Amino acid sequence: MFDLKDLYQEVIVDHNRSPRNFGKLDDADYRAEGFNPLCGDRLNLYLKMDDDRIQDISFDGSGCAISVASASLMTEALKGKTRDEAEKVFHEFHDLVMDKKQGDMESLEHLGKLAALLGVKEYPARVKCATLCWHTMHSALEGYTTPVTTE
Amino acid sequence: MNNPIAEKLTTNIDSIDVNVIRADFPVLDQKVNGKPLVYLDNAATTQKPRQVIDTINEYYRRYNSNIHRGVHSLSEKATAAYEAARETIRDFINAPATQEIIFVRGATEGINLVAQSYGMTNLKTGDEIIISEMEHHSNIVPWQLLCERTGAVLRVIPINDDGELKLEAYQSLLGPKTKLVSIVHISNALGTINPVKQIVDLAHEHDALVLVDGAQATAHTGIDVQALDCDFYVFSGHKMFGPTGIGVLYGKTDLLNAMPPYQSGGDMIKMVTLEKTLFNELPYKFEAGTPHIAGVIGMGAAINYIKSIGLDNIAAYEHDLLDYASAAVSDIKGLKLVGTAKKKTSILSFTLGNIHAHDIGTILDHEGVAVRAGHHCAMPVMERFGIPATARASFALYNTREEVDTLVKALKKCKEIFG
Q1: Residue B3 — pLDDT band, cuts 50, 70, 90?
Q2: Class of A4-144 per CATH?
Q3: CA angle B39, B42, B47 (to 5 degrees)
Q4: In chain A, positions 17-76, which contact chain B (CB-CB < 8 Å)?
C-alpha cells in the first residue's frame, strides 16, 4: 500500500515549514495570481527578468503543504533559467505529475528535487495543489493578468 | 448522575443500539486504504440506510412509471407512492397543508425559487434583505443576484467569536425597509443552532417574511413549521439519509398562491393553448416537468427511518457523541475549535496548528477517516475567523465513540508528520 511518507517526504515538509524565495518582489517585471477555489489555496508569483532570463523569482500567499512546497521548489528550480528552459521544465513536470508520461531515470534526474512531488500522483484530488504554482508561473511569463485557477 | 438532564440523556442513549443502526447502512461495512471506514462527513451528505436503498430499488424494479398522467396500474401506484411521500414530509415538519410541500432539487433550489418567484415580484429598489455572516453560499448568492436585479440591498447579521448570531445587531438591522430575512437553522460550518423562533417573531413585528434554510437541521432536530411560524422552510433529502437531487420547499399557502411559477412546462398547467396557459394549483404549479419520482419516494422512506428511531433519541445520542468528541480533541495541543456556540449540533470544525486543512484531510483519509476540508461553501465564515479553511468532522447517529478515538489518533499522526 502507498505510504504517506511518499507524499509528505522530508523535503516537502521542510519546504512547507520554511519556504524559499517567499515574499513580494517589489521590482518584478511580471506578477500573476493563482487560485484554487476548491481548497482556497492562493498564491502570487513574481518574476524579475534579465532580458530572456529569470533573474529573480518569488511567491507569497497561503495554501496546503503540497502547494507551498511545490511553489518553493519551483522557484529554486527556475532561478537563472531562460524563458524556454522554464517552459520546458514546466511541461516535463506537468506530464509526469499528470501521469501522462512514465518517469524514466533520466527525466527524474533532470527534475532533481522536484521529483519529490511526484507522490501526489497517488492522490488525484491533490495533483492540483502541486501544479497551481506552475500554471501561475506559465501565465506570468505569458504576461496574462487574469488570475489563474486550477478548477 | 444526579443531574436530571444527564439522567434523561442516558435513558435516551440507551434506546439507541448503534450496532443495529450501523447494520442498516451497507456503506459503513468496508475498508478504505486498508482501514475500517470512519465516515465523519455527514454534514456534506449522510449515508443511506438499506430501507431507503431498497425502497428506491423497488420503485425502479417493480413500478417505475410516470406520475399524474397514466391511467395504467403502474402509474397509479407510482403516483400514490409519490403523493404518500409528500404527506409523510408534511407530517414530519408539521405543515398545515400537504399542498405546501413543493418538491425541488434541494435546499439550494428552494432558496432560488423563493428569490426568483417571490423576490422578483415583490422586491424593489431600496428594500432590504437580511441574511447572516454564517450562511452557506446557497443562502448568499441567490440574494446577491436578486439585489442586482431589483436594486434591493443585502444586510448581514454579524456573528461573535463563538460563532453565534449577534441578536442585538439583528434587531437594529430590522426596520420598515426589511422585506425578507433568510437565515440558516443550523450552520454547516460551525454547528451553531440559531434561535429561529425568536428571529421569526422579530421579523414579523416588522412585517418581514422569513425563510429558514434547514439543510443541516432536519436530520438532527424536530421541525415544526407552525410553531416556528416561518414563511418558508427549505431542506435537502441527501442530508437526512435520503437520496441526492431531491429537496423540499415549504411555504405558507397564501404566499405560494400569490407567487408566479418558477419554471414552466408539463405537470404545472391546467390547460394550454398556443395563446395562453392556465396554471395548475399548488403544489403542482411549482413542479414543472417529470419530477425526481424515485428521489421523492426515497426521501419519504428516509423520514420513516428517522421516525422509527425518533429524533429525540437521535439528538440525545449525537449530543453525547459531540460532548465526547469535544473533550477528546481538547487534549490535542494546537487544535482550535471554530464554532463553540452554546447550542450546537454534532459538528467539529477546527484548525490544527499551521497544518493546512487539506493536508489533514489527506492524512486522515489514509487512516480511513473521511472528513471535509476547506471552506465548507461558507467563505465569509472563514474570513470572519481569519482562516483559509478548517477541517470538519460531522457526526451522525451511526458514529461511535470508538470512531472518535480513531479520529483523535489520526490527528496525532498529522502532528507527527508535520512535527
Answers
A1: very low
A2: alpha beta
A3: 70
A4: 17, 38-42, 62-66
> B283 preceded by cis ω (within 30°)?
yes
Chain segment B157-198, per-residue pLDDT in tens: 999 999 999 999 999 999 999 999 999 999 999 999 999 999
Alpha-carbon gap, residue B418 to B24, rounded angstroms: 38
- Write the single-letter amino acid at B365: D
B337 and B369 inside one domain: yes
Is B419 within the bounds of a domain?
A: no
Residue B259 lies in a domain: yes
Regarding whether B318 and B303 lie in a shared domain, the answer is no
Beta-bridge partners for A41? A36
As separate numbers, helices (DSSP H) first and strands (DSSP E) second, chain B gives: 16, 17
B353 & B272 share domain? no
Range of the domain at B83: 53-307
- Residue B257: which H helix or E strand, with range? helix B253-258
Same structural domain for residues B248 and B215? yes
DSSP-based three-state secondary structure for A90: helix
Nearest CA in chain A to B363: A4
The confidence score (pLDDT) of residue A101 equals 64
Grid coordinates belonging to B96: 398545515
pLDDT recorded at residue A151 = 52
pTM: 0.92
pLDDT in tens, B262-297: 998 888 888 888 888 888 999 999 999 999 999 999
Interacting residues of B330 by C-beta distance below 8 A, sequence separation 6+: none
DSSP structure class, residue B106 = S
- Total domains, chain B: 2
A40-49, B88-97, B130-139, range with the lowest pLDDT: A40-49
Contact indicator for B350, B189 with CB cutoff of 8 Å:
no
Q: Are residues B295 and B334 in the same domain?
A: no
* Residues of B with catalytic roles: 377
Mean pLDDT of B369-376: 94
Look at residue B64 and give its three-state secondary structure: coil
Q: How many CB pairs under 8 A join A and B?
A: 50
Whether B352 and B391 have beta carbons less than 8 Å apart is answered as yes
Task: Tell me if B350 sits within 8 A of B336, measured CB to CB.
Answer: yes
Q: Do A1 and B34 touch (CB under 8 A)?
A: yes
Closest chain B residue to the Cα of A128, Cα to Cα:
B358
CB A45 within 8 A of CB A145: no
ipTM of the predicted assembly exceeds 0.90: no
